[in-house]
Design a protein that fits this description.
Family: Belongs to the major facilitator superfamily. Sugar transporter (TC 2.A.1.1) family.
Low-confidence stretches: 20-24, 34-42, 508-518
Subcellular location: Membrane
Number of strands: 0
GO molecular function: carbohydrate transmembrane transporter activity; symporter activity
Distance between the termini: 14 Å
Pfam families: Sugar_tr (PF00083)
Mean pLDDT: 84
Keywords: Membrane, Sugar transport, Symport, Transmembrane, Transmembrane helix, Transport
Length: about 525
């Protein structure tokens, strides 16, 4: 038969194919090794570092709001005579409304680019901060929280995606974790602002706390205009020469830049080498939600899962309501309550820097699992301390100390694992054509859960006590640890275009290849 090949011809073809694959893989490994060693010798590409730092400063705004609101809420509650439910709505409204920004950010960044989406996020938050600082009433304050929340939603999606698409594989973990670093720094700045301004008249101190965010938002919006566009977005728009120029500045040499460009072009257009100027992310949601392939479905579950457990662990609520928790523990003075949060902020900031420094050395999985195990134990310890304090007429010092240590440990372990790695992982596992809109779906789940936890934390705690709430959060975090162990593969050192293969069924892939060759 004409289509039948003898065994010798098949063996020759198999060996030829195998040798080609080996040469391609050796080339990839050589270039990655050269890039990695160059990064170790020279520290890091300074252009990539500077650009990533600038892009990530957008996340400072969310961190500042989280930190400053934990103290400002004490004064706002008295000023407007709010109930606990109104406080929950005010605090959680920013997180819930950030869902709007998260959902829109994927399509927006595919349409106008990653860089201009970052500018849009900063300007939206600026308007929200201005409204909050000038709020004459509770509804006006809520309106400011809604607008600021939309800006936060844009920022949380686009900053990690931009940084991941710009960064070489060898340093992507560190650079993509910078948004979480800036969130943590922003929280600390918010705590310090609370402490510094708490002595001012209660009528105006909270206005200054919230309104001062206008200035960094404006500076960030202007500064981002000096950054280059994402090379992967440029390739998807068919702007190959511009992408090549960016890659030359963000790679360790010409060879690596050309190799990265070839890999991106191959992934974007199946080998034709260019995208289309008309591309605006069309069909991404359909491919993600309606007719996903098995690997895409696994990627989406992984991204949604890590974002869900990041917020279901209760980290945002712990930060927002720490003063109320310590007030129940027996610390009464507002300045002392705010002072404890500064200690917590210092611990959180220290450990997020440690995690960022070691992400590319140890990988995502070890630090993620270490962080969630530590959080599980810390939240359980916080529950034990709160339980003893709730039932005691005199507050034992050891129980107060246990609560303070447990809270600091919880936020520290969060900063080692879930904090930075959620943004890193979500932004790197989707294919180029689906990255922005896939990440936007995952971040929307993140903000929905954050809002739900923030808006129900006090009400649930009133019913089952702070101790009961912390025990539940500990159990949820333990489930998250199991999910991460079973479902999330390691992505350290992989090019973005190679990560999708980690979610494929290896047996099915091998079987399909054998059938096609036969």
């Amino acid at each position: 038969m004409r289509n039948t090949k003898n065994n010798s011809e098949l063996e020759v073809e198999d060996k030829s194919t195998e040798m080609t694959e080996i040469r391609v893989e050796e080339t990839r490994e050589t270039i990655q090794s050269v890039a990695g060693s160059a990064g170790r010798r020279g520290g890091m590409n300074k252009y990539v570092l500077g650009t990533s730092l600038l892009a990530s400063t957008n996340s400072l705004l969310l961190g500042y709001d989280i930190g400053v609101m934990s103290g400002a809420v004490l004064f706002i509650k008295d000023y407007f005579k709010l109930t606990n439910v109104q406080v929950e709505i005010m605090v959680g409204s920013l997180n819930v409304c950030s869902i709007i920004g998260s959902i829109l950010s994927g399509k927006t960044s595919d349409w106008i680019g990653r860089r201009y989406t970052i500018v849009l996020a900063a300007l939206t938050f600026l308007i929200g901060a201005l409204l909050m600082g000038l709020a004459p009433s509770y509804p006006f304050l809520l309106a400011g929280r809604v607008v600021a929340g939309i800006g936060v939603g844009y920022s949380l999606m686009v900053s990690p995606v931009y940084t991941a698409e710009l960064s070489p594989a060898a340093t992507r973990g560190f650079l993509s974790s910078l948004p979480e670093v800036f969130i943590t720094v922003g929280i600390l700045v918010g705590y310090i602002s609370n402490y510094a301004l708490s002595g001012i008249q209660p009528k105006i101190n909270w206005r200054i706390m919230l309104g001062i965010a206008v200035f960094p938002a404006f500076a960030i919006g202007v500064g981002v205009l000096t950054m280059p566009e994402s090379p992967r977005w440029l390739v998807m728009k068919g702007r190959i020469d511009e992408a090549r120029q960016v890659l030359r500045r963000t790679s360790s040499g010409e060879e690596e830049a050309e190799f990265r460009l070839q890999e991106i072009s191959k992934d974007v257009s199946g080998g034709s080498g260019s995208g289309s100027s008309d591309w605006k992310g069309q069909g991404a949601w359909r491919e993600l939600l309606c007719k996903p392939s098995q690997p895409i479905r696994r990627i989406l579950i992984a991204a949604i899962g890590i974002n869900f457990f990041m917020q279901a662990s209760g980290n945002d609520a712990v930060i927002y309501y720490t003063p109320q928790v310590f007030k129940a523990a027996g610390i009464k003075k507002k300045k002392q309550l705010v002072g404890v949060t500064v200690i917590m902020g210092i611990a959180k900031s220290s450990f997020v820097l440690i995690s960022a420094a070691f992400l590319d050395r140890f990988g995502r999985r070890p630090l993620l699992l270490l962080g969630t195990v530590g959080m599980t134990l810390s939240l359980a310890g916080l529950g034990v301390g709160s339980m003893y304090l709730a039932g005691a007429t005199t507050k034992p010092v050891w129980a107060i100390a246990l609560c303070v240590v447990a809270v600091c440990a919880d936020v520290s372990f969060f900063s080692i694992g879930l904090g930075p790695i959620t943004w890193v992982y979500s932004s790197e596992i989707f294919p180029n054509r689906l990255r922005a809109q896939g990440t936007s779906i995952a971040v929307s789940v993140n903000r929905l859960v954050s809002g739900a936890v923030s808006m129900s934390f006090l009400s649930i705690s009133d019913r089952i006590s702070f101790a009961g709430t912390f025990f539940i959060l500990s159990g949820i975090t333990a489930l998250g640890t199991l999910f991460f162990y079973l479902y999330l593969p390691e992505t350290k050192g992989k090019n973005l275009e190679d990560i999708g293969a980690l979610f494929e069924d290896k047996k099915e892939t091998t079987a399909c290849r054998d059938i096609s060759e036969a």
